[in-house]
Structures are given as structure tokens and as C-alpha cells.
Please model this.
Amino acid sequence: MEKKNIDLNAIKVVIFDFDDTLAIHKNRDYVKQRNENKETLLNYYYNGYLNPDTFYDIIEPCSISKKLQKLVDICEKQGIKMYCVSGMHFSFLLRAKENYLHKYYSENIEIISARTQELKCDAIRIIQRINNCKLNEIIFIDDIKDNIIMFNNMGIQGFLPEEIQL
Model:
């Protein structure tokens, strides 16, 4: 994978994905296991809703990306607006994700949910309007290569986490 330098001088907004981008799941099979049966799936979201402060530390343990943590610090210093757009079936995990982001990255990252990966494109367009910027002034970092291709085709600078060189 080719490393790419990110030039933040002309960037107004940086958007991150959550799962396996900012929150790297220690259990690589978490999606398969949470979907084993209906009760397991319901308990997963139930626990996320009831335990937002500890969900991604204890119930679904994740680790942070040191490289993206450094990028967040740089964005804060440069006054770049940051969002996390996460694909979610339900919003029951929204507070758990927000708590994780604010605990390990920054209180200045606003989380937005998108029901599907494709709806992330619409979320970007709304964020573009909110921030009165051009698409090429937005960076989106996501672990799904198809999303990066989709973003780049929109005119957004999309990066896989492992491509980033700071």
C-alpha cells in the first residue's frame, strides 16, 4: 500500500469512519458473532445503549489508531472541523461511539450516523453545506476500499488509514 502525504493547508473538514478506523476492533469476527442469532444481536445493542461509557473498552474492546490520534491533534491545532460518519443499523450505539471518540481522540469530533455505506456520500454533501466548503476541501478516512473509491469519484480526498503519512 502506497503511503500518501496529507496536505491539510487547503482542508476545511476531516471526516473519519468509526469501526476499524478510529476504533480498531480487537475481535476481528465481532460482526459475525453479534449476528449469530437474534438474542445475541439484541443483547449487543442493548449493552451498547446501557453501557455507553465502557462498551468499546469492555464489551466490544477496541484499540485506538496512534496515527489517526496524531492527525486529530494536528486538525485541532489548525482549526479543522472534524466529524465521524459511522454506518449503523441502529442508533443504540451512537452514545457509546461518541464516548469512545471523546475519551480517546477529541471532544471536537461530532458523530453522525448513516444507515448504509452509500449514505455516507449524502452525509458528506450535508457536511459540505454546513461548513460552506468545496468537496476537494474535505478528507474522508475509512477502512473500506470501496468507500475510498466512491469518495475519490465524488471529488473528496479519500484515504485508507494505512495510506496516511504525516
User: Anything to note?
Assistant: Residues 14 and 124 are 10 Å apart (CA to CA).
